[in-house]
Amino acid sequence: MQAHDLISILPELLLLVTACAVLLIDTFLKKDKTALVAVSVTGLLASGVISLALVGQDRVAFSGMLALNSWAVFFNVLFAFAGALTVLMSSDYLEAHKRHMGEYYVLLVFAVIGIDLMAASRDLISFYVSLELMAISSYILAGFFRYRSKSTEASIKYFLSGVFASAIMLYGISLIYGLTGATNFAAIATRVGDGKLTSGLILAVLLVAIGLAFKVSAVPFHFWTPDAYQGAPTPIAGFFSVGPKAAAFSVIVAAFVVAFPQSAREWGVFFIVLSVITMVIGNLFGLVQTNIKRMLAYSSIAHAGYLLAAVGAIGFSGNLYPGVTLFIYLAAYTFMNLGAFGVLTYLKGQLPDKFDYSLKQFAGLGRRSPWACSLLSLFLLSLTGIPGTAGFIGKFYVFGSVVNAHLTWLAVLGVILSAVSAYYYLRVIIYMFFKEPEEELEIRHSISGGMAAALTLCATATIVIGLLPSWLYDAAARAIGTISG
Predict the structure, then answer these.
(1) In this predicted structure, which of 68-72, 164-168, 302-306, 445-449 has the lowest mean pLDDT?
(2) Which of these, 58, 94, 99, 363, has the minimum number of CB atoms within 10 Å of its CB?
(3) Which whole-number Å values give the CA distances from 29 to 34, 99, 101, 120, 450, in the listed order?
(4) Given this model, what pLDDT does residue 32 score?
């Protein structure tokens, strides 16, 4: 290991120091945990700032295992925001459940380190180690409320599904190494050469793709998602829906584009098929949900389908423009989906313990908490893809890139299913503002500065990206331009 290797992972080293500091400080605190929130948010945002300061370095580290370039910076900044927003949304929620512990923030920071390194990985070994760091932290966070049966169930299901997916993926990685003698993405491409993949290598690639499909909640590898999201702490469910998913998509694009360019059309077809199934199942199952957290879980599955369409378009078209649109969508989705989960977190803290996110409990809520319901409406409209919001820009770019790849039928299907999703998104808005409640639930109307800041940032980003997307497009284009590391 050399000095320049450490420079490449400065953001992650800072996060490691942050996690250790939180763990140490927590031993000296009794009830007031404000210091833990401050240290965690400062460390996460500082890692994003350091990443931006390293723009233009364009180097590889640890013998080509990790890359420091615009690609890594794009995701480091995105994950820093996702982690910081999750921390800000968590304080009051944890206090209300009497589980405000330093370990929560430590695990969250370690999960961010894992997804940072996943995005920067240019080697199957570094990717797998980073994945497991993220996954182990996530399993524990999903069951953080261990005294609740649903939280324990969420953790167990997430763990079993994750271990199963990791085993499949690791077997595929071992086959790739056995057949090519390499684990570095670029080295694999060199060993394979210009010829088509052998049957053994096709099997190996398929196993890796299936393992990654588990991580992005693609159908039929999605069964863990609704239960894990419903049972996990609400801020953590929001984090699951954006951070690990975005990291997995970054690996999918990097691994398949760099390591297997000669078979782009074949893996493109695989992801297109996966996209169709995922979009259809995610939206159809979302229609019948009466629990808002489960509805957002199926919504995240549907959105994974839209993103997979862009991945398929990369392989099918042979150019990287769909990758630019995919990155735009990931950034837009991060803020609007975290914002939706943030409002649910706020409402859970304001309403009695019997509030369980069921649709009927949202009836008439718009009159009792108008600002929170207005924010939730904004995020739901963005998820629908209404013009003027980040969600519209994301879908516009992604479906446009799919059309440019001569897959017009896939784009039309995506638009139709987006219209279908409007039913279960707008239904929540109708309940909040136009339905009479069966039971009046008393709301305390208090909000912490952290929650207010997080929701304001999510709402602002949702509107700014929707109205002024050019800066995000430029950042995404610079990122995809350094895909080879």
Answers:
(1) 445-449
(2) 58
(3) 9, 14, 10, 35, 19
(4) 76
Res. 1 pLDDT band, cuts 50 70 90 = low
Asked if residue 419 has pLDDT above 70, the reply is yes
Residue 202 has pLDDT above 70, yes or no: yes
Tell me how many helices (H) and strands (E) the chain has. 20, 2
DSSP secondary structure string for all residues of 423-462: HHHHHHHHHHHHS--SS---------HHHHHHHHHHHHHH
Rounded to 5°, angle at Cα 78 from 134 and 2? 65
- CA-CA distance, 424 to 280, in Å (whole number)? 14
Is 409 a member of any domain?
yes
Residue 473 tokens read as: 């497009």
Q: CA–CA separation, 204 vs 177, rounded Å?
A: 9
| Prediction pTM value | 0.93
DSSP-assigned letters across all residues of 229-282: HHHS-HHHHHHHHHHHHHHHHHHHHHIIIII-GGGHHHHHHHHHHHHHHHHHHH
Spatial neighbors of 111 by CB under 8 A, at least 6 apart, are 83, 133, 134, 137, 138, 141, 239, 243, 244
Domains contained in the chain, number: 1
Query: Distance of alpha carbon 194 from its chain centroid, rounded?
Result: 34
The amino acid sitting at 129 is V
Is there a domain that residue 485 lies in? no
Report the Cα 212 to chain-centroid distance in Å: 13
